[in-house]
Amino acid sequence: MFERFTKDARAVVEGAVGHAEREGASRVEETHVLLSLLDREGSRGSFALASLGLPPGGRVGLVRDLDETRRRGGLSRADADALSGLGIDLSEIVSRVEETHGEGALAAAGRGSLFGGRSGRRMFSRGAKDLLTGTLRVAVARGERHIGDEHLLLALTTRRGVPSEILADHGVTHASLARVLYGDSRGGEPGTATEAKAG
């Protein structure tokens, strides 16, 4: 499959590995792929993000939201809302954990340093592997032979989880990306949760 990746798509995957390494994470996660997509300039994916109001340098809010999610131990805003409905104040729990264990204690849960992660090559999490497989499906559904960074971005928006939720909060949904990239709402994964959320 990787032989079909364009130079830009390969750079995103390599960048995701770099983000995981700098963070000390034991595995490459979908959030690392998103951060790497946000780093890109001059590609179809970066053009689409800029067209939807996220130009390079203007993505601070999205990165801040990702950092806040990490601080909550990876729980999304939807998770926090669900817990709130049960009478559980997630921000209070985070505050108490950080009082005892230091700021960012929950964010460190996935880092290799806490679990004796080995140095060297980072493995991809199940979610990140599924994302890469989804990228191939998106490209094939569009009738395209090569996989670009725009396909990685489209595939990311079709998946449930923190990256797609945060992108949607900033106006980047599967349907909006398909409109910007192709002039339609046919993004290769019709009927996804993100499209339903956008419509």
From TrEMBL:
Q: Transit peptide as a keyword?
A: no
Could you tell me which residue ranges the Clp R domain spans? 2-188
Q: Which keywords fit this entry according to its UniProt record?
A: Repeat
What Gene3D superfamilies does its record include? Clp, N-terminal domain
TM segments? Answer: none
Is this entry keyworded Repeat?
A: yes
Which PROSITE patterns does its entry note? CLP_R
* Entries under InterPro entries matching the protein: Clp_N_dom_sf, Clp_R_N
Protein name per its UniProtKB record: Peptidase
**Lineage of producing organism:** Bacteria, Bacillati, Actinomycetota, Actinomycetes, Kitasatosporales
